[in-house]
Specification:
The protein is mostly beta strands. It has two helices and ten strands, in the order E-E-E-H-E-E-E-E-E-E-E-H. The protein binds zinc ion.
């Protein structure tokens, strides 16, 4: 299933290949909790940026492993490169067109205590 998504103003748009029944995660770390981000983490080949590469700003902090990518026009982080899976892409499920989503299940990740919980992260397939 191909889901379409993007930022608020439409400058950033993409397609992501994922099931119609999604498994996403909610993280309580300092940045995810403030934005209410819902992570759909996929391997890089399942993600295709269609537009807006030149509109993205990158924000990093702490270990600087994650690349938080925001649209410079509307400020929305519709996807980014996560610390948990730097070879993959985390898509914000809240930025997907919901017409292709049949259901979703949320798992909680205690990213506030990253070091103690990193071993619970699943490899991507
Ligand atoms: Zn935008």
């Amino acid at each position: 299933m191909i889901h379409k998504g993007g930022c608020h103003c439409g400058a950033v748009s993409y397609e992501v290949e994922a099931p119609e029944d999604l498994e996403v995660s909610e993280c309580n770390c300092s940045i995810c909790s403030k934005s209410g981000y819902l992570h759909l983490i996929v391997t890089a080949p399942r993600f295709k940026l269609l537009s807006g590469e030149d509109k993205l700003l990158s924000y990093t902090f702490d270990t600087h492993e994650a690349k938080h990518l925001f649209c410079r026009i509307c400020g929305i982080k519709s996807f980014y490169i996560p610390r948990s899976h730097p070879d993959g892409v985390s898509v914000n499920m809240r930025c997907l067109d919901d017409s292709t989503i049949k259901s979703f299940r949320v798992e909680y990740f205690d990213g506030k205590n990253w070091e103690a919980n990193a071993h619970k992260l699943k490899p991507l397939n």
